[in-house]
What we know:
There is one protein chain. The chain is an alpha+beta fold. It has 2 domains: 100 residues, no CATH class; 149 residues, Nucleoside Triphosphate Pyrophosphohydrolase (Alpha-Beta Complex). Strands 6, 7, 8, 9, 10, 11, 12 and 13 form an 8-stranded mixed beta sheet that branches. Strands 1, 2, 3, 4 and 5 form a 5-stranded antiparallel beta sheet that branches. The longest helix has 13 residues. The radius of gyration is 22 Å and the shape is elongated. The termini are far apart.
Amino acid sequence: MANQIDKFILKLPPNRQLLCHLLMDKDWFKKSDFQVQKEVLSLPNEFEGFVYDLAQRQDRIGNVNIQKLVKINRGDYLITPQFLVYSPKTKKTFTREYVSWSLGKNPGVKGILLVKTENRISHFITVETEKFPIGKSTFDAIGGLSMYNPNQIIGLLSKQIENTINKKMGLTSLKIDEIYDLGRLETDNGLTPNHPGIFAAVIDGNQAQKIAIPDQTTSKSGLFTINIIPIEQLEMYISKIDDAFFLSTICRLLAKGVITL
Length: 261
């Protein structure tokens, strides 16, 4: 079995071979069936982030020992690995699984847009759109999938965030004055290792008029409904918006003193 995987690794490109060596340091991966090992190591390049994260997974997590990887279920951009694990406490063997983006646990950045008027945050912008997983329209943060280096949202990614916001708003020239790096968010650590970055971007009142006239508060951009809301209504929106990205972003902005209630 070891000879099979060794021969297979030699056929892989150099960057994938490096990940192979990391995985082969894990007892649970070495004990996995060859066909499962081969399937993991043969994943398309867009799943490289997932493979890298998988290679960081230790042999023991909490009170269970990982015995081997049983199988992976792959979609177009999501993947679910299933492991056989053993609990020394209960003396039982069972399976554990989680859901990952193809890009891995750091799949991109999402955040909100703030409007500054006369040197104060005067408005915040919300986006409502249809979301396929929940089957209805809901509030959504601005952003999306992209490979990025955590802790480097400012600087290298500022242009990318500006481009993302322009695309989301259906614009071409929205100018961002300032970006707040608000760290990262564990979206649902009982289901996924997903740990994207969150941010807040600030534009001035003139730029906001490209999106919608504040007196009208609402404009349409493709499938999105964009609302410019006076900051005085923030407390009400905190109570009505369930989106984790919006709530986490607002919480950290409050903690930093960027906005107040």
